[in-house]
Design brief:
This protein is mainly α. About 60% of the residues lie in helices and about 0% in strands. It has six helices and no strands. The longest helix is centred in the middle third of the chain and has 32 residues. It is flat.
Amino acid sequence: MVVRKKDFGPTLLTCLFSHQLQRFGLSLSSLVANMKINFAPYDVPLHRRLQTAVVLQWVFSFLGLAPTCIFLFFYLLFTRYWLISVLYAIWWYIDYDTPSRGGRRVPFLCGIKVWAYMRDYFPIKVRH
């Protein structure tokens, strides 16, 4: 298989499906060109790819984690583990105003590299 700059290269998908695509006279690059999808080129630096991955992880966590936790809360409420949901609801009631008081800062979480990647993903500057 000849890999050109425009092609994806020998990825797992290419290795798995190249034989089947060749039987029909197709290539992965021709399929992608017909779908009008522009994937990231090879010359995108690693730090930019990491920035994109961190932001996507944050978005998908935000979209998926809240509904999952709400479902789990109500599901546990009607099982024999109902006490977990009740204790969580009591803690939620007692701790309700914590965000308005500044929250709880955990130094370890404030210093991880994820926040730097997320900050650098968005091209804005804060002026004082």
